[in-house]
Amino acid sequence: MKTITIDHKNDLHLIASCPAVAALGFFDGVHLGHQKVIQTAKKLADKKGLKTAVISFFPHPKEIIGKTGERVHYLLPPAEKAKKFSRLGVDYFYLIRFTPEFARLEPKEFVWKYLVPLQIKHAVAGYDFTYGRKGKGSLDTMEEDSGYSITVTKVENVERNDEKISSTLIRNKIQLGLMEELPDYLGEFYETKGKMIRTDGKDELILDRYYMIPPKGCYDVAIGNGKEWFDGRVLVTEQKKIYWLGPPIPSVWNIFRVKVKWISRNIHFIPEIEEKQTKNLVSVHG
Ligand SMILES: Cc1cc2nc3c(=O)[nH]c(=O)nc-3n(C[C@H](O)[C@H](O)[C@H](O)COP(=O)(O)O)c2cc1C
Ligand SMILES: Nc1ncnc2c1ncn2[C@@H]1O[C@H](COP(=O)(O)OP(=O)(O)OP(=O)(O)O)[C@@H](O)[C@H]1O
């Protein structure tokens, strides 16, 4: 898969792309609803003999046009989103820099300045996808906006428990520490990346940017070093610091860079007691 970052300086006619079916949207977390949209685009592309593209944005539109200072709690950094797209069989990931200037484009301007030069022949999105200034464009307006050069497919909502799966719903679950419920929405456990560092005799996990950390509590997790997974427990403190609680990690493990799969909140461990104990931890390495 080719990732192409686009800002207003790019001349899109010079980008080496092929005619494609594009899935459109922000796709934070690449949850099961997003996967359905991308799989639909892929199937249609295969049928039409075209490439599959995802057109997305960064940062999140809310950070640019929302109330000043509004912070979006991202589920995944763009590079991890890209890996998930690649696994779904996407050929081109066009990542457009969302700027105030870009947000002001009228729906038609977006279609003619971006979709047409990128050779998008067919667009796929969910019912609630919008584009252009004040989100005035939708799949219902895209065919006309493009002078009927782009056809569209609207994907039915993917639901769980009578509710539309959404990035917002997943963010809310994480904020409540309901990590064990996430596979129902993501199709797998929530996975984050970071580094494990030793500070004051304790092993602290520092997540990379653009991931969410659940609230204060003890969690069962699995950490991965790229080859294998190791089960253990972490403590998340009020200040969102994450400490490894054990069991001791085999010393042969290179654990500087780690993946962390958040499995469930462990209600048998009380954060206050664990926090006191971490103060006495000397080493968790075997
Ligand atoms: C060219 C363009 C301009 C946009 N301008 C606005 C805007 O003025 N206000 C707004 O709330 N959203 C704006 N958006 C964001 C869209 O409404 C929408 O959130 C975005 O395309 C992602 O779709 P999704 O939320 O369905 O994933 C714009 C999007 C595009 C592509
Ligand atoms: N549950 C779903 N079923 C089908 N399509 C979906 C679903 N959720 C989102 N989509 C579609 O996937 C694309 C990306 O959507 P978007 O990033 O807005 O997801 P979202 O989960 O609704 O996010 P948020 O909660 O931040 O609004 C859009 O085309 C959107 O319509």
TrEMBL record:
GO terms for biological process: FAD biosynthetic process; FMN biosynthetic process; riboflavin biosynthetic process. Gene3D superfamilies: HUPs (3.40.50.620). One of its GO terms (molecular function) is riboflavin kinase activity. Its EC number is 2.7.7.2. Pfam families: FAD_syn. It catalyses: FMN + ATP + H(+) = FAD + diphosphate. Pathway: Cofactor biosynthesis; FAD biosynthesis; FAD from FMN: step 1/1. Keywords: ATP-binding, FAD, Flavoprotein, FMN, Nucleotide-binding, Nucleotidyltransferase, Transferase. Residues 19-168 form the FAD synthetase domain. Belongs to the RibF family. This is FAD synthase. The lineage of its organism: Bacteria, Bacillati, Bacillota, Bacilli, Bacillales.
